[in-house]
Design goal:
The protein is built from 7 helices and 14 strands. The protein has about 260 residues and is an alpha/beta fold. It has one domain (about 10-264): Metallo-beta-lactamase, Chain A. The radius of gyration is 18 Å and the shape is globular. The relative contact order is 0.18.
Amino acid sequence: MKPLDIHNILKITLLGTGTSMGVPMIACNCEVCCSSDSRDKRTRSSVKIESNGQIIVVDAGPDFRQQMLASNTKRLNAILFTHEHKDHTAGLDDVRAFNWINGEPSCLYGEERTLLALRKEYSYAFKSKEEKYPGVPELLLNRIGLQPFEAAGIKIIPVRVFHHKMPVLGFRIDDFSYVTDASLIHDDSMKLIRNSKILVINALRIEPHISHFSLKQALEVIDELQPERAYLTHISHHMGLHSEVSKQLPPNVFLGYDGLELEI
C-alpha cells in the first residue's frame, strides 16, 4: 500500500462509540447508564477522518447533528456509509446545514442496497425540481462496490465484513482501518486491514452476540491483525464501566470514547 506523504497527518476523531440504543440507554438504571464518567456517555457509532484539508465522515446516525457540533465540524466533503441500518443513517437530513453554509450538495458513498434505502427513507430529497420542497437536503449518491475509490481526493479501500448474515462495509484509509457492526471477517478482508497503524473495531459486550463481535472475539481479531494500536467501538452498556474494562485490555488496545482524537 502506498504510504502517506510524510508531510500529511491523518487525523481521526471518534464521533460516536455507542451501540444502536446509545449509552445511557433510555429507562436503564444500570451502573454504566448512571455513570458520571463522560467516557461512558456514548452516541451512535461514527468517525471523522481529516486528510490534506479534506473531511470525511463514516455514517450519519441519529446523533449526527450533536456529533458535528461537539467536534466543531464546519465543512464536510463526503459521507461513507457502512450499511443502511437506522443507527447509521437516521441523521442524514441534518446535512442541510452544510448544504446551506458551504453552498454545495453532500456527496454520499455506499453500496447499491444502501443507496436504495436512502432514496426511500429520504424520498423528499429526490423529488423533481418542480416538486421538491425548498430547503430539503441536497444529496449526490455515489455507488461503490469492493473496488478502491476516491472520495474528496482520498483513496478509500472498502472491506467486506458480515453483520450476522448481512454484508456490510468497513473501510481502510492509508494506515487507518475502521470496522463496525461486524461479527465475521473472511481471510481476504483480513488481508486488506492487516498491519494497520490504527484499527477501530466493534466490540459490543462481554457476552457473545449474534451480529457483533464480543470483547473476546474482537481481541482475537486484533491479535491476528497486529495493528500498532486498536480502539474498540460500538460499545453497549453491557460492556461495563470504561474505567474498569480498560484495566483488562492488552497494552495496545483501548476502549474508544466519544470525542477521542487520534493521529497518524
